[in-house]
């Protein structure tokens, strides 16, 4: 990966798609996260699928409700071209009074289109985590869209009632249009809510319109919850929220299925850096526990982390919640 001068970075910014009004193009001159020089052909071929409008909508919707400012992460993580010299990765990161981190990574290439968009609340709020992961390659689409629960919705009934009971009609509307996508491990299911959209489908204009509609409605709902949320003042509850988010980040940074894609695009070293320090930033700030502290069942005989996605070996082939959002998966595991 090449370094480029400040002038070439500035000239390259003219070749990018029109950005959201809050987008910054700050790229650290000492960082690997930058674009190649202007002379290289780094523009994408025309693609039928683009997730840029998802990002634009979310940023504009956030600005309607809150003051959105660039995150310090934007100084280090901007845009870059993958090792193939063609695929472009673009990172955006922001913060707001109630949002610790709002960030996205979009990957655009001839072979794939990817969006990973997330918004993490500050520890003073027990809000769910907004999660939108979309992967398109050839004619295949893999989608996860959810308001990931910060706390367990089965054991903490009050949390489920506060954040999910009223959202079940919304969830049922879209899970009917975007059916369950097949096997999902028992370990992963713990991080999803009763309204999660986990689906796979062949590319079509109508399906992508439904997906965009779902994204808009889910994000509008999350912003309304954020706006209405009551700030916790009890130090013990704030600590509980912080640890719950740290546990989530630790799991995702270690077991996120996007790791393999990033590794192929930019190499193992940069992929790990991007996962830990950008996509799931907060691991070093919110807590000190390790992955094996939270998930000791993944400890191998030599003390290392078992690389398997699932230790329990159980998965859910059908949706493990009923229409009321009650977990019925104990009878569905395969």
Automatic annotation (TrEMBL):
Keywords: Oxidoreductase. It comes from the Eukaryota. One of its GO terms (biological process) is phytochromobilin biosynthetic process. It holds the Pfam family Fe_bilin_red. GO terms for molecular function: cobalt ion binding; oxidoreductase activity, acting on the CH-CH group of donors, iron-sulfur protein as acceptor. Belongs to the HY2 family. This is Phytochromobilin:ferredoxin oxidoreductase isoform 1. It comes from Theobroma cacao (Cacao).
